[in-house]
Protein: LacI family transcriptional regulator
Amino acid sequence: MRVTSADVARESGVSRTTVSYVLNAKQGVVITDATRKRVLDTAARLGYTPSAAARALRSGRSDLVLCVLPDWTVGPLLDSLIDHVTTSLHEHGLSVLVHISRGSRPLTDLWRAVTPCAVLGLLPFAEQDARAMTRAGIVVVDAALDEDPHPQTFSVPQAAIGQLQVEHLAQRGHRVLAYAAPADARLSAFAERRISGVRAACARLGLPEPRVTEVELTVGSASAALAAWRADEPATGVAAYNDEVALAVLAAAHDQGLLVPQDLAVIGVDDIPVARLATPPLTTVWQAIDAQAEYLAQAVLAALDPARPRPTRPDDVFHVVTRAST
Amino acid sequence: MRVTSADVARESGVSRTTVSYVLNAKQGVVITDATRKRVLDTAARLGYTPSAAARALRSGRSDLVLCVLPDWTVGPLLDSLIDHVTTSLHEHGLSVLVHISRGSRPLTDLWRAVTPCAVLGLLPFAEQDARAMTRAGIVVVDAALDEDPHPQTFSVPQAAIGQLQVEHLAQRGHRVLAYAAPADARLSAFAERRISGVRAACARLGLPEPRVTEVELTVGSASAALAAWRADEPATGVAAYNDEVALAVLAAAHDQGLLVPQDLAVIGVDDIPVARLATPPLTTVWQAIDAQAEYLAQAVLAALDPARPRPTRPDDVFHVVTRAST
DNA sequence: CTGAAAGCGCTTACAG
DNA sequence: CTGAAAGCGCTTACAG
Structure:
């Protein structure tokens, strides 16, 4: 039924050993050009594809990279990241498989089932999981949301985003600030860190404590938050968790007849396509997601092949895109 | 090093056969409760997880479902779809692995490497690929963008979306219509079908030919399109490819001082969160994506287990959400 | 009710 | 330069 290496061997009149050597371009073994060609031709003619299961069983390795996604809402940024990592690793013969883990089934079952050569996590793995995978010979690459003590861990310091937003607003003369936090609990890991960055920046710049309120993606919710922020000494600058939340705030401001940016300045995060279509166009924090993706891909390759140099972490990954909303 | 079924057998004083029977809850074999318990306990204690590679090699099956994504931009809708399918199949012990295929490497290499029990495609597979997978005992489930002749193929008829948009606009009294097509080539498979639905509906309702123009996600691009649409006999209704494009049109209308919906009515597709935050809130076509995802999950399960009833196709998957932009 | 043994398709020392 | 053989960790007829 299935074409095996034994078929290729028989058809080309060599042993399976030779077939394996040729097909895997085994280093240090010399094969006659004639033999090599014969084997390759036969393999092509018979449509031979090696059984990955057998190979994985025997060598304990595969060319699959398992990318485990935490329980986040997948936005366009994460999409680009995955897309870039996939493309980049594909150039090195690796296939990326993405699993959306909703905390569901133990990670162990999954990597045992896939037997990937590497597992890429966008959050740090549990100590125990990481150890088990390493012990099984699987390369583990993960990322952190904070500055991580391990120099080789990739981190996207969320606090820096909040800080950047505050600095931008302060620069424009705003002193009383509000933070529009996301209502989706799955984003709290990000939100908390960004908020702590906002708080720290306010303290450092001598601004009053920022007013943090959860804002759902409705005009009603944003209006309620806005009313609270405008009471007493009114907040004039709003840092939003992301562009969507920022657009809700913008809609509420419009609804209440506030002028943006005169009465209220708003800054988002992500630079989603729609941000520039808002009225007024939204100032936002842009991330160099491709640079981050490339770093992750290179980190996987370097971990897989010690001869490869470790990539250097991209710096300057955040960057304010100034538009008319601030 | 690694805990194998032989270890479990030795530790619990039975043969590997028995271990396999117990762990796989093999039908038709009777095992003493005491033995069963002993084996299960030992397995748990040793932290045994079967080698999927070995199992796949031996039985040719795994509990992995490979979901192949075409070269689309992954939007929130596709995210929900995948998320739902993953959750749903997970309840049946299956793990979904997503591969973003940028047309890159042959599909063959991938399914051979993963040896999944089923492959789920969101577009029809090439005849040849489908045959090869079926021959290898892999269940193939795919979907189509048109009404498909095969009754078991899942289809999300894109033409119906365009038709629905036109019907909605016509109902509101609009006769001269424009279509805002996406500029991203990766969406053309969808766009062409939606446009043909728009054309067909216009013809059927006796409306003039719709004016189709590509619109990028910038105010400038949308303004240019708008100017063209308003020349001569001005179009008063715009069907946009999706909500993002619709928001660009809305921004251009605002820019040119056109009143929406009085001067110009706009309808999108997708109901992204930001649609309701637009000024005015955007009328759009909503899709029952969860019902579609559930259908796909059930289709996979039914294909895997012939004893399961085939799911019935969800109908009424589209639905206009009327807001103030029309 | 349980076990000894074959075999899935590879890779890789080890001989020649 | 090439081949015979072992073995990766399972499942599953086949005996008992």
Remarks:
- Residues 14-18, 21, 29-32, 35, 54, 56-60 of chain A lie near DNA strand D (CB under 10 Å from a C1').
- Chain A touches chain B through 57 residues (CB under 8 Å).
- DSSP finds twelve helices and twelve strands in chain A.
